[in-house]
Amino acid sequence: MPLVFATPPIPLSTAHAFAAFFTVSYVGSLYLSKSARLIFKNGVTLSARPGEERAKEPEERWRDDPDVIRARLVAASTSTALSVAAVYWLVRSVTPESELHKDPLAAFKSTLARLGLTLDFTSASRLSILLPCLVTPALFLGPLYVAWLCETLPLQRRWSVRGDLLPIFTTWIGVRNYIVAPITEEAVFRACMLAVYHMAGASRAKMIFLTPLAFGVAHLHHAWDIYNRYGRTSYAVRTAIISTLFQLAYTSLFGFHCAYLFLRTGSLLPPTSAHVFCNIMGFPQYGLHVRMFPKRRRLIQLMYIFGVAAYIYTLRAWTQADDSLFWPAPGQAERY
Fold first, then answer.
1. C-alpha distances in Å from residue 13, one per residue of 42, 130, 247
2. What are the distances in angstroms from CA 173 to CA 58, 240, 270?
3. What is the structure's pLDDT at 125?
4. How far apart are CA 265 and CA 108, in angstroms?
């Protein structure tokens, strides 16, 4: 067990300050560098119809441009490293000198545990880090069943390594959406954020339902991008507002889920794997699925219902680690 405290070692105001730093530095890093900023030309001739993106001008820089993605990946990774370093500095500042004399790496080991980066599990709990990674797929039984009907699951007829797997690693959009974004966002908005609030003694309910709001707010800057890409019209304003509010709600709900996984397991792996999985699957589209397979409507409905039931069961049954720093077993005292 790494170094822990019997009482919260920092005040809640300090946790708020660090949380603000994590959020502002992550989003702000995307705009500090000129190469990472989006550029939209003024006075362009709008060619977009309602619901369609307008044509991109040659001198513009949009978020899916390879050079913009590269610059933003570097910015987000740098910001994440600074947030992790800030957590280490905080842990180091509250670590008693007597503990450092006993073990010079005490603060470092404590930081790794607080960030969920340790893989030091007992033999009895090896499955405790694998089962939580299956909770999110359980919720998606409905969409997975439809993917099976479409024969697009791995190793099925319409799935291929070249068309479905390699783009994740060989395209900038794939690297952003399925590798760098999930890792950096979970490291900052789950590991770093929850680590400092746990050190401040925040309740688990507040950590689960309030800290993800910062994750949702961090996506609001996409509204400007949507407004410009959809033609800067009144329709574009409505589209930007609706899309942003939906994303705020979805990312906040998703954040509740990932915060729970992190606190229950004490590991960053389950929320990160959930993030990657959800980015691959996208938002469930029940209406589209039953229209695609009207003869399988009942089965699709049942699989969606089974998915919700499986999620409710596995969310608690498959997520309790033997010795989570953030979620002590019944009868154990709280540790900070």
1. 43, 35, 28
2. 20, 21, 23
3. 56
4. 20
- Taking phi over 0 as left and psi of -120 to 50 as alpha, with beta for the rest, 307 belongs to alpha
- Of 72, 52, 51, 50, the C-alpha closest to 61 is 72
CA nearest 323: which of 1, 8, 4, 91?
1
Q: How far is residue 287 from each of residues 75, 142, 202, 304, 305, measured CA to CA in Å? A: 38, 12, 40, 12, 14
Helix then strand count (H, E) for the chain reads 17, 0
Looking at this protein, which amino acid is placed at residue 217? V
Q: Are 204 and 326 in contact (CB under 8 A)?
A: yes
Measured CA to CA, the distance from residue 192 to residue 170 in angstroms comes to: 29
116-166 residue pLDDT tens: 997 554 445 566 678 999 999 999 999 999 999 999 999 999 999 999 999
Q: Which long-range contacts (CB under 8 A, 24 or more apart) does 297-302 make?
A: 299/145, 300/142, 300/145, 300/146
Neighbours of 314 (CB within 10 A): 18
- Give SS3 for 248: helix
Cβ atoms of residues 2 and 332 within 8 Å = no
Q: Where would I find the H helices in 33-133?
A: 66-94, 97-102, 106-114
**Measured between alpha carbons, how far is 241 from 38 in angstroms, rounded to an integer?**
19
Cβ neighbours, 10 Å, residue 140: 22
In one-letter notation, the amino acid at residue 86 is A
Please, which residues bridge with residue 81 across strands?
Answer: none
Alpha helices in 171-322, H assignment, sequence order: 172-175, 181-186, 193-199, 204-209, 212-217, 222-229, 234-265, 269-281, 286-292, 297-317
pLDDT, tens digit (0-9, with 9 covering 90-100), for 268-288 = 999 999 999 999 999 999 999
Determine contact, residues 261/135, Cβ cutoff 8 Å: yes
Which residue in 307, 323, 212 sits closest to 264, CA to CA? 323
